[in-house]
Specification:
Radius of gyration: 19 Å
CATH architecture of the largest domain: 3-Layer(aba) Sandwich
CATH class of the largest domain: Alpha Beta
CATH superfamily of the largest domain: Periplasmic binding protein-like II
Mean pLDDT: 91
Strand content: 15-25%
Number of strands: 11
CATH topology of the largest domain: D-Maltodextrin-Binding Protein, domain 2
Length: 343
């Protein structure tokens, strides 16, 4: 939910998130449990919020979980690049593709979801936008470098619209909501709860995802770990994934209870949480190990190609300098921790 130039925006994270501690980890030997685990996350209507709010991540890792709320995947990339984050939770496939291409030193260890319609174009009903040509002269906001940005640029490309015709603005989800309420923007491509807020305030969905998925603009939310952390604390990494799996299982078996917990954690109503959850395709831990997704250990699945093609698109957009070969993305997928959890 980011691009290379964003790494310069938050270098202050190096001090604020504990660069010294990360350097010590890199030098140290393998250990059973870390003194703490620093996690970059988003406030979202997903099962991730169950495991966070109920303390399951900390319990499963047998350590203190230090949470850092992020606005975009670019910020997670920045934190990991600075050595101040150990995990990126539900980071979008676009920033992950950028992070791997830029050699940030993390591995893709799991998935949260196939995003599908959960991130979608929302237009102001009063703007009378009913076809692609209606976007000409309009202002559309999205978090740059995110999966939503990736989809938005794909929408413009597929429909032969240039950025001289459509003004694309870089805003965080919170900024999008504020700009929408002021009437400063005509449309936004973003995820919930921001998406839900603007839909409730005079917005309507302009469907793009089916066409874009068919054209190869597949997006997903992923779980990454800093490589040095994973090597030293493999049991903690496996515990992290097991905690998420437990939360996902609760959602599958008791969606009403899950929606209530998520709603409280995300600051929305249970009805909104339930509606948002229904839009995602949450991929089970077992299915993540299939060739269709991440693949079993040592045999990366088809998702490596998705990351590779995403990186090539980001190069075209001048978001990153270069896209390495497919083998680089395949090598960055490490499902050994996931396999340990699934058994």
């Amino acid at each position: 939910m980011s691009k290379g130039k964003s790494f310069d925006r938050r270098t202050v994270l190096a001090a604020g998130l504990g660069l010294g501690a990360s350097a010590a980890l890199a030098r140290g030997a393998r250990a059973a449990a870390p003194p703490e685990a620093r996690i970059g996350y988003f406030v979202e209507t997903k099962p991730t919020m169950i495991a966070k709010s109920l303390g399951w991540f900390a319990d499963a890792m047998k350590t203190k979980a230090v949470w850092h709320e992020m606005g975009t995947g670019a910020e997670i990339n920045t934190g990991i690049a600075a050595g101040g984050l150990d995990f990126g939770l539900a980071i979008g496939s676009s920033p992950v593709a950028a992070g791997i291409a830029e050699g940030l030193g993390y591995q893709l260890i799991g998935m949260v979801d196939n995003i599908g319609p959960a991130e979608e174009m929302t237009v102001r009903a009063a703007a009378n936008i009913t076809k692609p040509a209606d976007f000409i002269g309009k202002k559309v906001a999205t978090p740059f470098g995110s999966t939503s940005h990736f989809r938005l640029m794909g929408f413009l490309g597929v429909n032969h619209l240039s950025q001289s015709q459509v003004t694309v603005l870089d805003m965080s989800p919170e900024q999008i909501v504020a700009a929408w309420k002021r009437g400063d923007i005509d449309a936004a491509y973003v995820w919930s709860p921001a998406k839900a807020e603007i839909l409730a305030d005079g917005g309507k969905v302009y469907e793009t995802y089916k066409e874009l998925d068919a054209d190869g603009y597949v997006i997903a939310d992923l779980i990454v770990v800093r490589t040095a952390f994973g090597r030293r604390y493999p049991d903690a990494v496996a515990g992290f994934l097991s905690a998420y799996g437990k939360a996902l299982a609760l959602y599958v078996t008791d969606p009403d209870k899950a929606a209530k917990i998520i709603a409280q954690a995300a600051g929305v109503s249970p009805a909104v949480a339930a509606s948002n959850l229904a839009e995602y395709d949450f991929v089970s831990l077992k299915d993540q190990l299939s060739p269709e997704w991440l693949g079993p250990p040592g045999h990366p699945g088809k998702f490596a190609s998705v990351l590779h093609s995403t990186a090539e698109f980001l190069v075209q957009q001048k978001s990153i300098r270069t896209a390495p070969p497919l083998a680089t993305f395949a090598a960055a997928i490490n499902t050994s921790y996931l396999a340990k959890v699934v058994g």
